[in-house]
Specification:
Helices cover 44% and strands 6% of the residues. It has 245 residues and is mainly alpha-helical.
Length: 245
């Protein structure tokens, strides 16, 4: 399976607006986004065990904000997501494994799902940032194609569940507007204009920082993949992880 391959599912397709019964909680969005990410970046370890999912949710990189969810909080989020057909629990394995059902539950195309997943994990981003950050999930042709899918998500009719993203007001000093998802409800724009907002220029130092950040993200994803593979091996052998009873 390649990063561009949709995740198959034999589950009957629910109505495209089932997810809109209620907004997702912050924890549910993190769990869902993590499952969507790992399905593409570590397919050999997917679906995920609870341990691997908790580790992915609490990563220090590629997450905004950084969270520290407990096993119980992740399980509660999984229960909520299962109730609206966003997550499926696998059967036939000694250890419970979980996979997302986002494309079927929301009835959005693959490219739109990729953008929504990244917005859930890393918060508001420009179209250019989204194209860069989703490179390991899906390779968009150009920024214009990212914008096109975002516009489509913003213009969704009420019959299809309504808008799933919103284009935010331009922050002071920023050159481009950012996009945010609406799966957790309306966005509070009063919290957008903070002193930590990026400046208007992107000089060589900022480009170097961006490249370094990408390398750190890749290393974090590699470590997470190795942890998931080790957990999978322990599960198959019936062994406990070091430090566990």
């Amino acid at each position: 399976m390649t990063p561009d391959t949709p995740i198959p599912s034999a589950t009957p397709r629910p109505r495209g607006h089932d997810f809109a019964v209620r907004p997702l909680s912050i924890a549910e969005a993190r769990v869902l986004g993590t499952l969507m990410e790992k399905a593409r970046t570590v397919p050999d370890s997917y679906p995920l065990t609870l341990n691997a999912l908790v580790t992915g949710c609490n990563q220090k990189s590629s997450r905004e904000p950084v969270m520290q969810l407990s096993d119980d909080q992740v399980l509660e989020a999984l229960d909520g997501l299962r109730s609206i057909h966003m997550v499926l629990e696998g059967s036939g394995s000694r250890v419970a494994r979980f996979e997302h059902n986002f494309l079927r539950a929301t009835a959005v195309p693959e490219q739109s799902a990729v953008l929504l997943g990244m917005l859930m994990l890393r918060g508001p981003q420009t179209a250019g940032e989204l194209r860069l950050n989703t490179e390991r999930w899906y390779r968009f042709l150009d920024i214009a194609s990212v914008d096109a899918f975002l516009e489509e998500l913003q213009d969704r009719s009420p019959e299809r569940g309504g808008p799933l993203v919103v284009k935010l007001p331009r922050a002071p000093g920023a050159r481009e507007q950012r996009w945010a998802h609406l799966l957790c409800g309306p966005v509070d724009t009063t919290a957008l204009f903070t002193p930590s907002a990026p400046g208007p220029s992107a000089g060589p130092q900022e480009e170097d920082w961006t490249a370094l950040k990408r390398r750190v993200d890749d290393l974090e994803n590699t470590v997470t993949a190795l942890q998931a593979q080790l957990q999978n091996l322990h599960d198959q052998l019936g062994l406990s992880q070091p430090g566990q009873p």
